[in-house]
Amino acid sequence: MDFILSIILLAPFVGSVILLFISNQRPLLVRGVTAGFAFISLAFSFYLLYAYDYSAGGFQFMEQYEWANPLGISFFLGVDGIGVAMVLASSILLFAGVFVSWHIEDRAKE
């Protein structure tokens, strides 16, 4: 997959945009959407750990997108060995944070 890092990066953002359209009066739906998008990020992070070729080393899963070519602005993503561990740690922390805050009733969307 050439876009796995984009999925890991954008899944929580897409989930938060969807939360903008869900009423605060439906806390179970808010929690479910949040947990779902956190799980997507976590699952792809574990796949990243599994698919990374440690014998090759260096940057892998590289993505580059041109944004403003005349200005020389582009968006580049890639991970090396320690980066894979950091991406996985961030996804685990996001997923755990969702469930640590599961029982918060007041202002559940925040």
Describe the protein in words:
With 110 residues, the chain is an alpha+beta fold. The protein has one domain. 55% of the residues lie in helices and 15% in strands. The protein has three helices and two strands, in the order H-H-E-E-H. Strand 1 and strand 2 form a beta hairpin. Helix 1 packs antiparallel against helix 2 and helix 2 runs antiparallel to helix 3. The model has no long low-confidence stretch (mean pLDDT 92).
In short:
With 110 residues, the chain is α+β, with helices and mostly antiparallel strands. It has three helices and two strands; from the N terminus they run H-H-E-E-H. It has one domain.
Radius of gyration: 17 Å
- What is the strand content? 5-15%
Helix content: 55-70%
Number of domains: 1
Helical stretch tally:
3
How would you describe the shape? flat
How many beta-strand elements?
A: 2
For the largest beta-sheet, the strand count, sense and barrel status come to: 2 strands, antiparallel
The end-to-end span amounts to 33 Å
Structural class: alpha+beta
Spatial strand arrangement across the major sheet: 1-2
Strands, helices and their partners?
Blueprint: H1 4-19, H2 27-51, E1 60-68, E2 73-79, H3 81-100
Antiparallel strand pairs: 1-2
Tags for this model:
alpha+beta, 3 helices, 110 residues, flat, two-stranded antiparallel sheet, single chain
